[in-house]
């Protein structure tokens, strides 16, 4: 598989750092490297049909790679969450269920991640998603 294009890396980087006018170094390099690694892994992943929730709910085929995984709280004992990237583009909040009925929502600047998932993110991702320089 060929490496991800710089356009794909840039698009995902920009989606994750939307609260920043200039994301600082060294976190900038760390985040770009992590995105590239994740997109490479997603490109190698097996395609899966997953229910995507958005303006409408529909099945979609995605090749996903998690950047973070966390158990859900006691209320949702049969479920865990992932913050993932797709080879097809974008970041996703993926809810995995033991019964195989997985579902996902596209990540945007306004997305709320479950607390356990937030706590499992790498520092450069936390800074990108929840930080900002007031722009």
Entry summary:
With 135 residues, the chain is α+β, with helices and mostly antiparallel strands.
Can you tag this structure with a few keywords?
single chain, 27% strand, alpha+beta, six-stranded mixed sheet, 135 residues
Can you tell me about this structure?
The chain is an alpha+beta fold and 135 residues long. The chain has one domain (6-130). The chain contains four helices and six strands. A six-stranded mixed sheet has the order 2-1-6-5-4-3. Strand 5 (91-97) and strand 6 form a beta hairpin. It is globular and about 40 Å long.
Q: Which segments are poorly predicted (pLDDT under 50) over 5 or more consecutive residues?
A: none
The fraction of residues in strands falls at 25-35%
Q: How many strands, which pairing sense, and closed or not: the largest β-sheet? A: 6 strands, mixed
What series of H and E elements makes up the topology? HHEEEEEEHH
Give the topology:
Elements: H1 6-16, H2 27-44, E1 48-52, E2 58-62, E3 64-71, E4 79-86, E5 91-97, E6 103-106, H3 115-120, H4 123-130
């Amino acid at each position: 598989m060929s490496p991800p294009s710089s356009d794909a890396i840039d698009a995902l980087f920009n989606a994750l750092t939307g609260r920043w006018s200039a994301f600082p170094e060294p976190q900038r390099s760390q985040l770009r490297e992590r995105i590239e690694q994740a997109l490479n892994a997603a490109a190698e992943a097996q395609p899966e049909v997953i229910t995507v929730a958005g303006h409408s709910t529909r099945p979609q085929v995605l090749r996903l790679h998690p950047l973070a995984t966390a158990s859900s709280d006691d209320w949702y004992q049969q479920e865990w969450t992932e913050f993932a990237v797709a080879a097809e583009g974008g970041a996703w909040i993926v809810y995995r269920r033991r019964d195989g009925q997985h579902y996902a929502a596209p990540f945007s600047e306004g997305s709320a991640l479950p607390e356990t998932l937030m706590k499992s993110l790498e520092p450069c991702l936390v800074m990108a998603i929840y930080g900002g320089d007031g722009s």
